[in-house]
Each structure stands twice: as C-alpha cells, then as structure tokens.
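for the recovery benchmark. tokens below, seq after
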C-alpha cells in the first residue's frame, strides 16, 4: 500500500456563511470565525492537513485573501493562495487547482469549514485512499452516519476494489427526507458525503474534459493568464467570468464511472447550523450548552454563545442565543435552518449588520467601529508590528489619532513624527497621511473621524504595501520626501 507518497492538500475557502449569522457574515464567513477553542474552522483544517503536507494551496476570493493569508500564518503552514475573481462553485475551483499542479500530483481537496476532531484517524484514512487514486479513481470519503441526517447527501458503496480499502460508488443520494434517511441508515451500505476528494491532477483534468469541457477550457484560459503577487496567484478575471458556476458533484461525479469511496469512522461535522455548533460543546445535566461568558438558570436544552460579555438564559427551553457586539440572535432550536432567511430579510432592508461585522480585518490589522453619529465616527485601530496602512487622503473628513498603546509613526503631508502613548496628532481633510507601527508589539490607536461624509470609499490611495492600489509615484514621493527618521531614533523606538 502506497501510504507514504506525498499528498498536496487544496483547501476550498468559498461560502457566504449566512447559516451561522450573526457570528458568520458575508465579510467574515464561518470558516474564518473563531468557533472551536478560539480557533477558526479554517485554521483547524490547515493544522489537520499539515499532518499530510504543510505546503497547502488555498482557493479563495479576492475579498478574503488577507483573512486566508493571516490564517495560514497562524496555522504555521506555507503555500500559495489561488484567488478567484468571481465565485464559480467547486468545479471551477478544483479545475484551476488541478491545472496549476503537476499532472502526477495527488491532490486532496477539502472544504475549509468542517470539524474533524480525530486528526490522526483522518490522516490514516486519507492515506488508505492513495492506491485507489493511483488506479485512476476520484476517491471520496464517506462518513459513517451516526443518525439519519437530512442535512447531508449520502453515498452508496458498491463492490470492493482491489486495493482492499475502497469500494466503487454505486450512486450519490441528494439530501433526503427524514423517512428516506432512516431507510438508508437501516439498509446499511450508505455514508454521509463529506465533500473531500483525493485524486491525481491528471485524472481530474481528464474527467472534466469528458464531462464539463466548457468549465475546463475557461479555467485553462484563466490559469494561463494568471498573475502572481507574493503568495497570491490571481486568475484572469475576463477568462474566469466566462466559466459557468457548477458544483463538482453535478459537473463530474454523478456522471463519472471511476469513483471510489473510503469510509471515515471518526466524528465529522460540516458545522452547517447553530445546532451543529451547539453539538461541539458539552451539555450539562439539563441539556444546556454554554460558550464563553454564558450561563443558564432554570433552563433546558438552551445553547448560548457569548464570547464578549455575560449573557444569562433564565427559564428558557429549546433556544439558541448568539451574542455579538452589534447583533443578537434568539431562535427556537427547531428554527436553526431558517437563519439564512433572516439574513436575506435584513439585507433587503438595508441592514449593514446582515453582511458586515463591527470589527473589520485588514492586512495591517483591524479596526472596530466603536461609535457613529451624524458627523463623527470613532474607531479603534490595531496595527500589527511592522505593518503600515496605505499612504492615503480623504476629501470629506478629517481625523484625530490618539495612541493608547505602543508608539506610532505618523506621516502627514511629508512630515513624519513618532506619536507615543497618550499623545495625538490631527490630520486635516485633504492631507496625505499614513499610520505605521515601527515597534515589536501591537499598536492601538483611537481614531476620531469628523466631517460631512464618513464612508469607507472616501479613500484615495497613493501607495500600498498590500497591492490595493496602483502606485502614484509623484504624490507618493511628495508625501514621503521627509519620511526618513534618524536611524538611532527608529532603533530606540523598535527595540
């Protein structure tokens, strides 16, 4: 058995995360939210796949590239991030990754938002699928079902294959009704479809050419014209937009002949609802499951997610309570699958909390919108050590920066100064400015914005470390001509 051959993990990082609102939102889908032990599902996925290979490819969107890169760094793995200019579902994502790999590479495609606690068992199970993949099969992994779920698709196993660990797939079953799910469990031979695949790059490309040649051709054009930016690999937008959106299940798997299934007998969840999140926490004698600063009194079967402040459930039953800094969800446990409908309703009403968090992650750190009025906004900025914001200008607002922790390097119209704790600097509207953290600890700044328009689109960028603008040399040179501090002053500040 070829269990020692190298495997190249590919993590599919798409998804809007509306089913776990208000924690998960369009700007911060569930794979990036801290759900298990303070870690995100993506970080746990990367750490799990690192047992197979610490060089991991992630396929994600342009909007989430910095979230993925930060998580990759936190998980202490390496690898590139393939950036999709538009969402086109799993068939296009997998096709692009296969085209960018060597033909003989063994690729393990894994979703970014699944929870698998027994990582050693997962590694062993994946390796038992190598022989079937080398024999030209697309190998899928079926989870041994623990109850008749209506939330998952099913795989029916057929005849045993020669490798001794896999079976031919007889058929795929769509998410069934409760009665059908019970029948499948009682009948035996069925497993949950985990959406994890092991396949040689050449095998997947050949299957796409046979069953979805239009998707393959669009991805061939998009990868041939891809551009590199550090660890980011951007697919060509014009070519990729021509690709139709389809899942790998519909585009290939349900039509292909050589599909094998390997059973995984450990715990697995796609964490697709708040009930699934609740099941990740231990229950007390009354069936309550509590997270963070939550507590329950005279309550039964209540789940409370309270990471920021005390939340008490008193005399409740069969409830889901999720607290975030700017939105709260209170739902009957039987309504967990309807949360996405709530998000759609809030979006139609123009509620920004439907899609965006108060705290917004940026490549340099993050900002938290603390307060907002008619002509003012207060933000708390946290800037990573050595990071800096873009060199920028605002037409309609002025800003005051008050340093509350660390030391900032502030540029304002070519003048550079260090701003220490309990000191501030004023930036008038129209001033070309930049905030930097020259130190070795996190910089915290309170930013007070005042003016007639405070939208995030009132930013003109002249220079940016993170590739978010085309450099404008003349303006940048004007703003930075005096931006050199004495070496001994910088050294003293960053020590």
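predicted aa per position
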């Amino acid at each position: 058995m070829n269990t020692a051959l190298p495997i190249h993990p590919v993590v599919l990082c798409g998804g809007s995360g509306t089913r776990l609102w208000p924690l998960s939102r369009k700007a911060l889908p569930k794979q990036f939210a801290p759900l298990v032990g303070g870690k995100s599902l993506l970080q746990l996925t990367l750490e799990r796949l690192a047992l197979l290979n610490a060089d991991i490819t992630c396929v994600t969107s342009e909007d989430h590239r910095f979230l993925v890169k930060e998580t990759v760094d936190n998980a202490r793995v390496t690898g590139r991030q393939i950036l999709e200019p538009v969402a086109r579902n799993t068939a296009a994502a997998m096709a692009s990754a296969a085209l960018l790999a060597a033909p003989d590479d063994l690729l393990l495609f894994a979703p970014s938002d699944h929870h698998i606690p027994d990582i050693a068992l997962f590694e062993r199970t994946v390796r038992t699928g190598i022989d079937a993949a080398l024999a030209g099969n697309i190998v899928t992994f079926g989870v041994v079902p623990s109850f008749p779920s209506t939330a998952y698709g099913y795989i029916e196993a057929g005849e045993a294959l020669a490798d001794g660990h896999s079976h031919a797939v007889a058929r795929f079953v769509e998410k069934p009704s409760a009665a059908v799910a019970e029948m499948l469990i009682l009948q035996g031979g069925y497993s949950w479809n985990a959406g994890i695949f092991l396949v040689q790059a050449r095998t997947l490309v050949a299957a796409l050419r046979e069953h979805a040649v239009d998707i393959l051709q669009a991805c061939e054009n998009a990868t041939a014209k891809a551009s590199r930016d550090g660890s980011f690999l951007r697919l060509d937008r014009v070519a990729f937009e021509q690709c139709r959106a389809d899942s790998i299940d519909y585009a290939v798997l349900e039509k292909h002949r050589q599909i094998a299934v390997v059973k995984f007998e450990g715990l697995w969840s796609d964490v697709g609802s708040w009930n699934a999140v609740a099941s990740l926490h231990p229950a007390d004698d009354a069936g309550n499951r509590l997270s963070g600063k939550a507590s329950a009194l005279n309550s039964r079967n209540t789940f409370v997610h309270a990471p920021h402040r005390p939340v008490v459930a008193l005399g409740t039953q069969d409830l889901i309570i999720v607290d975030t800094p700017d939105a709260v969800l209170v739902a009957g446990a039987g309504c967990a699958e309807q949360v996405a409908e709530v998000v759609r309703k809030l979006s139609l009403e123009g509620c920004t909390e439907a899609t965006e968090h108060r705290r917004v992650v940026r490549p340099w750190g993050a900002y938290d919108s603390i307060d907002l009025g008619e002509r003012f906004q207060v933000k708390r900025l946290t800037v990573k050590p050595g990071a800096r914001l873009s060199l920028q200008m605002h037409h309609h607002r002025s800003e005051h920066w008050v340093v509350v922790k660390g030391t900032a390097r502030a540029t304002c119209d070519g003048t550079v100064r260090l701003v220490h704790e309990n000191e501030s600097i004023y930036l008038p509207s129209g001033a070309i400015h930049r905030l930097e953290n020259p130190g070795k600890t996190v910089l915290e700044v309170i930013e007070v914005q005042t003016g007639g328009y405070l939208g995030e689109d009132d930013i003109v960028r002249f220079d940016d470390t993170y590739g978010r603008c085309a450099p404008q040399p003349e303006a940048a040179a004007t703003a930075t001509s005096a931006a050199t501090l004495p070496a001994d002053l910088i050294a003293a500040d960053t020590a």
